[in-house]
């Protein structure tokens, strides 16, 4: 392999994650990056692009389609499945945990690919973190709304002030070793059933 | 359900036999693909068979055979539910990640079928005036007629789906097509479609037919989008299907674990064969964490009651699934060589003496015998002739003699042109 610029193909059905990876690759100085979101027509793309590295989401069942493609098209020099170094268990685990798999043209120098894979792994992880944070934020918002509603019910039914209603909720949560949102949920449900 | 890594099997606090302790963890991580032929593994984990042997079988559902292969190779799995041609391909150095893989146990027979779109089937009916109860061979010939018509009319070739380049489905689909006189490499387009997507792909017109394992054929026929035209039993009843795969080094380093695992799987397989247990088995298989298909369809699949289409055409296939009876668990080396013969036939690899030896090494009846005893193994030759017993013939009448493999491959009128090119030199590829 010459030191020429590597052609990289990213196959990811998740457009946001794909763009995060693309951005990372470009920041790392890779200009020949192609991103596709579905595998339709991938055969032609591989043929024209002749990628040195293909990055594909490990949860994508179309990996088996890629395997078939490699069997059929012998235009691409023999691609090997993921992982730069077979003995490097830590990076294998990191890649699988992150959900990254990759194909690399045989004979490519390990060091050249390692940085690309490491980058893909960290970007995949960053994306999952982002998703988790988003989900957390969403559920925090939901919980706050629930507590507000429970507080309102307590204020109305028991004639409490806002602070007293909040204190009562918190105390009940502590006594029952539950989350305040759970207590609030039972109050809202009970109110719906009883009133 | 015990099919995710997080969920542990109930009752796993039973005393651990000390002998296993010497081999380290008694937890065996097994990867599987959501198919009915993963039944033996799922039953072993779910109904106490593994536990009885002091093992905890942690099942991990995966989405592609490539993942299963890689995760076994990279030690993320200890064992895996695999297509029988996969260990053979690995030992031959084929595919994008060939890492030594063996099988000491077969997960049963049967389960595959070929389904064509209802539209294509209607065309075959009118082209060949097919009778209602026409067989697999008549269907293949009718398809050949339609393909000839399409070619004459300048229509685009049919697109047919299978599951993996090294799969029983690939070889069975090709066998059936070729028996009908269709060249699978030049007259149709074979593509890979993940099994759970086959029915949707057929409905959307992305493919015109597929060969896949249960329950996906019946899912398509019940939906009214497909017509089942051949079952694995029609092509070759004994055809190898899924196996339990492992790394040879793993098997060597923990012989006691391997033996206990095989004892557990053997007991689970026997249990799976008993129709009385099919209700319980179907309920567990229907769970989204194992297969996630309607429980009624899975029950029908287990009993071999086939809805061929949505118009009530039915067919009962005796022993559509055999998990234990007739040495279904025995890894017959003749099967490994038959798989090798089909790889040669379709140009995936060249014939060589070394290839013969490598293919045979993928199957490990010695480990089976060690675990289950000689009585659990068939008495006939490991390299027996296949297809010459009554009720077990190939659809085109050929007989496979593993000792005359090269000759056998050349008997077929339809085969890859690569055979001749390859046999001259070992360094094709």
TrEMBL record, chain A:
Q: Which InterPro entries match?
A: ANTAR, CheY-like_superfamily, Sig_transdc_resp-reg_antiterm, Sig_transdc_resp-reg_receiver, WH-like_DNA-bd_sf
Please list the residues that carry the modification 4-aspartylphosphate. 57
- GO process annotations (BP): phosphorelay signal transduction system
Q: Does the keyword NAD apply?
A: no
The alphabetical list of record keywords is: Phosphoprotein
- Gene Ontology MF term list: RNA binding
Residue span, Response regulatory domain: 7-121
Q: Tell me the PANTHER family matching this sequence.
A: PTHR43367, TWO-COMPONENT RESPONSE REGULATOR-LIKE APRR6-RELATED
Q: Quote the protein name from its UniProt record.
A: Chemotaxis protein CheY
Q: Which taxonomic lineage is given here?
A: Bacteria, Pseudomonadati, Pseudomonadota, Alphaproteobacteria, Hyphomicrobiales
From TrEMBL, chain B:
Q: GO terms for CC?
A: endomembrane system
Q: Which CDD domains match?
A: PBP2_NrtA_CpmA_like
| Locations listed in the record | Endomembrane system
Q: Which UniProt keywords apply?
A: Cell inner membrane, Cell membrane, Membrane, Transport
Stored Gene3D superfamilies: Periplasmic binding protein-like II
Q: What is its main location?
A: membrane
Q: Which domain of life is it from?
A: Bacteria
- Protein name per UniProt: ABC transporter substrate-binding protein
Q: Please name the PANTHER family in this protein's record.
A: ALIPHATIC SULFONATES-BINDING PROTEIN-RELATED, BLL4572 PROTEIN
């Amino acid at each position: 392999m010459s030191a020429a610029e590597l052609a990289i193909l990213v196959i990811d059905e998740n457009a946001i994650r794909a763009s995060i990876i693309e951005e990372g690759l470009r920041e790392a100085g890779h200009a020949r990056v192609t991103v596709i979101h579905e595998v339709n027509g991938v055969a032609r793309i591989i043929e024209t692009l002749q990628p040195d590295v293909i990055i594909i989401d490990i949860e994508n069942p179309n990996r088996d389609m890629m395997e078939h493609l490699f069997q059929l098209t012998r235009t691409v020099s023999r691609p090997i499945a993921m992982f730069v170094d077979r003995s490097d268990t830590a990076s294998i685990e990191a890649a699988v945990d992150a959900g990254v798999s990759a194909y690399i043209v045989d004979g490519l120098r390990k060091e050249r690919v390692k940085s690309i894979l490491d980058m893909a792994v960290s970007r995949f992880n960053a994306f999952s973190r982002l998703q988790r944070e988003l989900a957390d934020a969403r559920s925090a918002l939901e919980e706050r709304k629930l507590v507000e509603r429970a507080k309102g019910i307590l204020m109305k039914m028991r004639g409490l002030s806002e602070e007293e209603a909040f204190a009562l909720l918190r105390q009940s949560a502590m006594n029952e070793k539950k989350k305040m949102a759970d207590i609030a949920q039972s109050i809202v449900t009970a109110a719906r059933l009883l009133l | 359900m015990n099919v995710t890594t997080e969920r542990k099997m109930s009752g796993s606090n039973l005393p651990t036999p000390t002998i296993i302790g010497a081999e380290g963890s008694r937890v065996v991580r097994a990867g599987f693909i959501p198919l009915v032929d993963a039944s033996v593994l799922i039953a072993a984990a779910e109904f106490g068979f593994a536990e009885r042997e002091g093992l905890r079988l942690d099942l991990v559902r995966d989405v592609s055979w490539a993942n299963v292969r890689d995760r076994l190779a990279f030690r993320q799995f200890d064992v895996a539910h695999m297509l029988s041609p996969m260990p053979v391909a690995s030992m031959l150095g084929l595919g994008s990640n060939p890492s030594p893989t063996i099988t000491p146990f077969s997960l049963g027979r049967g389960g595959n079928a070929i389904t064509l779109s209802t539209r294509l089937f209607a065309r075959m009916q009118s082209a060949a005036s097919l009778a209602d109860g026409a067989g697999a061979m008549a269907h293949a010939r009718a398809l050949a007629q339609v393909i000839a018509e399409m070619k004459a009319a300048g229509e685009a070739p049919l697109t047919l789906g299978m599951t993996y380049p090294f799969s029983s489905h690939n070889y069975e689909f090709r066998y059936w097509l070729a028996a009908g006189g269709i060249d699978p490499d030049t007259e149709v387009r074979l593509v890979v479609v993940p099994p759970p997507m086959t029915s949707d792909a057929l409905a959307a017109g992305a493919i015109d037919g597929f060969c896949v394992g249960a329950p996906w054929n019946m899912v398509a026929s019940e939906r009214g989008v497909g017509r089942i035209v051949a079952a694995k039993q029609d092509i070759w009843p004994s055809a190898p299907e899924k196996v339990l795969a492992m790394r040879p080094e793993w098997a060597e380093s923990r012989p006691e674990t391997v033996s206990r695992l095989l004892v557990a799987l053997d007991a689970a397989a026997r249990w799976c064969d008993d129709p009385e247990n099919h209700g319980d088995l179907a309920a567990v298989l229907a769970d989204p964490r194992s297969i996630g298909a309607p429980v009624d369809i899975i029950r029908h699949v287990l009993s071999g009651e086939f809805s061929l289409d949505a118009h009530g055409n039915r067919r009962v296939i005796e022993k559509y699934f055999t998990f234990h009876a007739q040495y279904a668990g025995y890894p017959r080396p003749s099967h490994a060589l038959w798989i090798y013969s089909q790889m040669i036939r379709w140009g995936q690899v060249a014939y060589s003496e070394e290839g013969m030896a490598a293919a045979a090494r993928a199957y490990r009846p010695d480990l089976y015998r060690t675990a289950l005893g000689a009585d659990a193994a068939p008495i006939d030759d490991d390299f027996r002739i296949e297809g010459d017993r009554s009720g077990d013939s190939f659809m085109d009448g050929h007989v496979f003699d593993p000792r005359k493999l090269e000759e056998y491959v050349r008997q077929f009128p339809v085969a890859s042109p690569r055979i001749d090119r390859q046999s001259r030199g070992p360094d094709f590829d």
